[in-house]
């Protein structure tokens, strides 16, 4: 039975440390001190033992005595290939030789400590190394997010989106697994990012498209692997679960995950530990899991395409994002948002949308949802076409409701005809119509009572 290391406190559990020293007392001293703080701490008395351990597991930090039997720590460091330079290293020595210190630093050492030393001195050095390592991870993820142009805000004030926002605010601070369902293009990843942003978790947000990774590579990508575990595995490699330590991993298109991997994921969710491919040891993880799908997983379960037990484990809390066609009142806000955002990004003049333009946009079914709306606005800005001309390129958009009236009508009749046409265009939803008309729902109810002497709520 494999041993599961305790979760790392206070740093993420993915951090692993290897101590290399030929003095048994020093190995025991450092091992006991570091084991209280880190998930995995191993010791070796020689370079040969260290190499054997490194062949089975990746180590984030190496603490190495410079003078070792047979081969010095500096010689070993210089022989490590580029793949293994991902490990930080702290050198120790009992000889105050400036030339050796310079040589160690040139070899890529993160720090150089003279023996004897106080434990606090070593712990401070270790913390600095790990903090720098975690900062590099966070900066990498931040650069990816900035380059992709992600926004952390969720646009939409329809009743359905208000409920989505309410759920997000309530459950974000918890560690519960969440399943997000919705059609393609509805903004599932944006919801997952908002959950992470409001969670208070200090680690990164790591998105994974389960359908974009070859099935035979998915396990290695998620859990990592050791050197030689399969053809082409030349070195140890961290998986995305380790990369997400202290943060959130977002498993998009979870319905595309092969059944074999579904079994492995269920085990991870239940035991809160991962086992890299080729390794015999499990490592505890501190990762919040959010999954998303555009499929109906309940139907996939009945068809035998998705594990029932994994579905129940993922479906602890379900957030359903409605398609854009079911919340036309959000189209106007989204249109203005993307127009401002894309206009600034592209460096072009913004489009001024008329009331008629916005009605057309609301009446369109948007099968590609928010993604399609954003792409349409971007094309419109790039082509520089006025909206009235651009409709010719979108034959699927229906003509707006005609609200013509005879010239001899009194103003009150024109107002009534226009208002009722807008309400009808929104399927009788007076709240949505009131937002488009720029009046309060109370005002609209008063108008209806005045015109028709009916219960204001009768048609809702």
Automatic annotation (TrEMBL):
<dbReference type="Pfam" id="PF25601">
    <property type="entry name" value="AAA_lid_14"/>
</dbReference>
<dbReference type="InterPro" id="IPR009057">
    <property type="entry name" value="Homeodomain-like_sf"/>
</dbReference>
<dbReference type="Pfam" id="PF00072">
    <property type="entry name" value="Response_reg"/>
</dbReference>
<feature type="modified residue" description="4-aspartylphosphate">
    <location>
        <position position="65"/>
    </location>
</feature>
<dbReference type="InterPro" id="IPR025944">
    <property type="entry name" value="Sigma_54_int_dom_CS"/>
</dbReference>
<dbReference type="InterPro" id="IPR002078">
    <property type="entry name" value="Sigma_54_int"/>
</dbReference>
<dbReference type="Pfam" id="PF00158">
    <property type="entry name" value="Sigma54_activat"/>
</dbReference>
<feature type="domain" description="Response regulatory">
    <location>
        <begin position="16"/>
        <end position="130"/>
    </location>
</feature>
<dbReference type="InterPro" id="IPR011006">
    <property type="entry name" value="CheY-like_superfamily"/>
</dbReference>
<dbReference type="Pfam" id="PF02954">
    <property type="entry name" value="HTH_8"/>
</dbReference>
<dbReference type="InterPro" id="IPR058031">
    <property type="entry name" value="AAA_lid_NorR"/>
</dbReference>
<keyword id="KW-0547">Nucleotide-binding</keyword>
<keyword id="KW-0067">ATP-binding</keyword>
<dbReference type="InterPro" id="IPR025943">
    <property type="entry name" value="Sigma_54_int_dom_ATP-bd_2"/>
</dbReference>
<dbReference type="InterPro" id="IPR001789">
    <property type="entry name" value="Sig_transdc_resp-reg_receiver"/>
</dbReference>
<dbReference type="InterPro" id="IPR027417">
    <property type="entry name" value="P-loop_NTPase"/>
</dbReference>
<protein>
    <submittedName>
        <fullName>Sigma-54-dependent Fis family transcriptional regulator</fullName>
    </submittedName>
</protein>
<keyword id="KW-0805">Transcription regulation</keyword>
<keyword id="KW-0804">Transcription</keyword>
<feature type="domain" description="Sigma-54 factor interaction">
    <location>
        <begin position="154"/>
        <end position="382"/>
    </location>
</feature>
<dbReference type="InterPro" id="IPR002197">
    <property type="entry name" value="HTH_Fis"/>
</dbReference>
<keyword id="KW-0238">DNA-binding</keyword>
<dbReference type="InterPro" id="IPR025662">
    <property type="entry name" value="Sigma_54_int_dom_ATP-bd_1"/>
</dbReference>
<keyword id="KW-0597">Phosphoprotein</keyword>
<dbReference type="InterPro" id="IPR003593">
    <property type="entry name" value="AAA+_ATPase"/>
</dbReference>
């Amino acid at each position: 039975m494999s041993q599961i290391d305790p979760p790392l406190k206070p740093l993420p559990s993915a951090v692993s440390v290897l101590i290399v020293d030929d003095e048994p007392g020093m190995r025991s001293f450092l091992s006991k001190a570091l084991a209280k703080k880190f998930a995995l701490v191993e010791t070796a008395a020689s370079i040969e033992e260290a190499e054997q351990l490194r062949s089975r597991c990746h180590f984030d930090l190496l603490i190495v005595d410079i003078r070792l039997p047979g081969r010095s720590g500096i010689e070993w460091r210089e022989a490590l290939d580029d793949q293994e330079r991902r490990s930080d290293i702290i050198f120790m020595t009992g000889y105050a030789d400036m030339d050796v210190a310079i040589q160690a630093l040139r070899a890529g050492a993160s720090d150089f400590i003279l023996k004897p030393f106080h434990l606090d001195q070593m712990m401070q050095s270790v913390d600095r190394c790990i903090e720098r390592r975690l900062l590099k991870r966070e900066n990498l993820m931040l650069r990816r997010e900035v380059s992709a142009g992600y926004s952390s805000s969720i646009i939409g004030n329809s009743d359905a989106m208000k409920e989505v926002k309410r759920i997000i605010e309530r459950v974000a601070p918890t560690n519960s697994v969440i399943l997000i369902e919705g059609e393609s293009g509805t903004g599932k990843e944006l919801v997952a990012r908002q959950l992470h942003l409001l969670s208070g978790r200090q680690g990164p947000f790591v998105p994974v498209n389960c359908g974009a990774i070859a099935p035979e590579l998915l396990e290695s990508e998620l859990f990592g692997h050791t050197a030689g575990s399969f053809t082409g595995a030349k070195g140890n490699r961290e998986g995305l679960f380790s990369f997400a330590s202290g943060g959130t991993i977002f498993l998009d298109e979870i319905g595309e995950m092969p059944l074999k991997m579904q079994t492995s994921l269920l085990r991870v969710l239940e035991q809160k530990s991962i086992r890299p491919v080729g390794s015999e040891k499990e490592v505890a993880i501190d990762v919040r899991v959010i999954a998303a799908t555009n499929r109906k997983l309940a139907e996939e379960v009945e068809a035998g395409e998705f594990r029932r037990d994994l579905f129940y484990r993922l479906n602890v809390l379900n957030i359903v994002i409605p398609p854009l066609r079911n919340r036309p009142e959000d189209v106007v806000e989204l249109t203005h948002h993307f127009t401002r955002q894309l206009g600034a990004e592209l460096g072009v003049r913004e489009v001024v949308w008329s009331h008629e333009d916005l009605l057309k946009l609301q009446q369109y079914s948007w099968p590609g949802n928010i993604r399609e709306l954003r792409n349409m606005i971007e094309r419109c800005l790039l082509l520089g076409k006025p909206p009235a001309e651009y409709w010719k390129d979108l034959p699927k958009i229906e003509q707006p409701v005609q609200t013509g009236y005879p010239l001899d009508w009194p103003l009150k009749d024109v107002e009534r005809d226009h208002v009722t046409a807008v309400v009808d265009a929104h399927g009788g939803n007076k709240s949505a119509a009131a937002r488009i008309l720029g009046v309060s729902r109370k005002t609209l109810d008063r108008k209806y009572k005045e015109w028709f002497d009916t219960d204001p709520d009768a048609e809702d």
